User: Which sequence fits this backbone?
């Protein structure tokens, strides 16, 4: 479903992605772990076509992203939904209008059908009847769920999750983890989850890849990553201060 080959991205003198190769199978949930500032969010932005690579190829569902052909960007974006780290809800719109935004922009459905879809997606994320609420009335976990409902409104084939459990208490974080798994099982979506939360990574991932110094340095199942002998991966997953990873990376995503 997703193929990334030789992806490179540099900001000034800082090399963020240095030849990333990543293949995600149809229906798989791939978790990408790594320290803050290693470029995980930058990687997601390339998959959805928000950033143009310096080098490399990104293909989603057989469509190669080509910045010289805007049609390819539009095609890929129509297939992909994204849950942003801060949920990115429109503060001036209630929950219903946030979820309906993309549907109304497409101008293809009548209001009654849009309302039906909104209620359907709210039901999926266990927020039935919350359409009248404003973002200021929502808890952090509720905002994440509304953001997920909005991302699902257009029935994407691919879901991208940017630090979905950041800032949430452990119980609420587990609710989000369960929703990610539920979306995979109920809707068959292919997903990439970027996180440094290993509890979440182990729970939602079919396979886990670690991004370090601009490259994927290891990929494996949750059990394989948990029991890795790679000293850099082991240091990260165990949260150890001492080890081969020492220097602070530039915080770029």
Assistant:
């Amino acid at each position: 479903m997703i193929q990334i080959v030789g992806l490179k991205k540099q900001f000034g003198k800082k090399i963020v992605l240095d030849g990333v190769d990543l293949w995600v199978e149809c229906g798989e949930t791939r978790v990408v772990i790594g320290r803050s500032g290693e470029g995980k969010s930058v990687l997601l932005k390339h998959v959805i076509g928000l950033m143009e690579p310096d080098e490399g190829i990104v293909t989603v569902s057989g469509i190669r992203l080509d910045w010289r052909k805007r049609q390819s960007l539009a095609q890929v974006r129509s297939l992909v939904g994204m849950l942003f780290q801060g949920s990115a809800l429109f503060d001036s719109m209630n929950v219903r209008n946030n979820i309906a935004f993309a549907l109304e922009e497409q101008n293809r459905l009548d209001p009654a059908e849009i309302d039906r879809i909104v209620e359907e997606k709210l039901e999926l994320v266990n927020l039935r009847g919350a359409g009248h609420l404003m973002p200021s009335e929502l808890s952090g976990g509720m905002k994440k769920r509304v953001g997920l409902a909005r991302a699902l409104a257009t029935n994407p084939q691919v879901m991208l999750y940017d630090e979905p459990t950041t800032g949430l208490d452990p119980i609420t974080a587990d609710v989000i983890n369960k929703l990610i798994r539920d979306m995979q099982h109920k809707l068959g979506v292919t997903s990439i989850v970027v996180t440094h939360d290993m509890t979440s990574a182990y729970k939602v991932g079919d396979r886990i890849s670690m991004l370090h110094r601009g490259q994927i340095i290891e990929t494996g199942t949750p059990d394989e990553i948990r029991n890795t002998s790679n000293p850099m991966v082991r240091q990260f997953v165990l949260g150890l201060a001492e080890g081969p990873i020492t220097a602070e990376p530039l915080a770029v995503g």
Q: What stands out?
A: Residues 2-238 form a domain with the Rossmann fold fold (CATH 3.40.50.300). The longest strand covers residues 14-24.
